[in-house]
Amino acid sequence: MKANKRTVWFLTLLSLVAVISIYYVKKEAPMPFDGIAIFTKETKDATNLLEKEGKSEEVKPVFAESYIFQDMRMEVRNERSETVQQLTEKMTSSDFSAEEKNEIFNEIADLRKVSSTEALMEMQIAALGYPEVFVRGDGDRVNVTVLSNESHSPKMADEITQYVMSSWEGAQTVKVDFAEIKE
């Protein structure tokens, strides 16, 4: 029992020391939670550094098309969630037979399967070396839009097409578009 009390006191003391040390570390270098202030400070520091080196003309704002992809993903997600909600309301209604409800359930499952397959394809194509990818499946047609800062080639499009055709069950047509990063 005596060793148990020592262990408890030791752990209490150790945790107290850890809390106090974290408090003092944070007190000396507090981190604000304002994300905008963090980015503006870093941008100002980078601008000052470039001005000291005489490269102030090379600072150009970059428009990130990946935000467009995020907007497109949100639109597709919202569209599909509305469809799922409508189908769920039909399924819970007593106006439909068991066979019709089963078909509605299968439609919902297919929508979820397409959404997860699109997300998986986006991750796997990004792993091939493309910075930002948007994949949209519509029946047997798959549209792939790739954001690239390099010049694209038919070989790159063929690589993506072959990958999608081999990985996506039921894909008959694959369309690959490249969007270049604008500076």
UniProtKB/TrEMBL annotation:
UniProt keywords, alphabetically: Membrane, Transmembrane, Transmembrane helix
Domain of life per record: Bacteria
Listed name of the protein: Stage III sporulation protein AH
A Pfam family matched in the record: SpoIIIAH
TM region positions: 7-25
Source species: Sporosarcina ureae
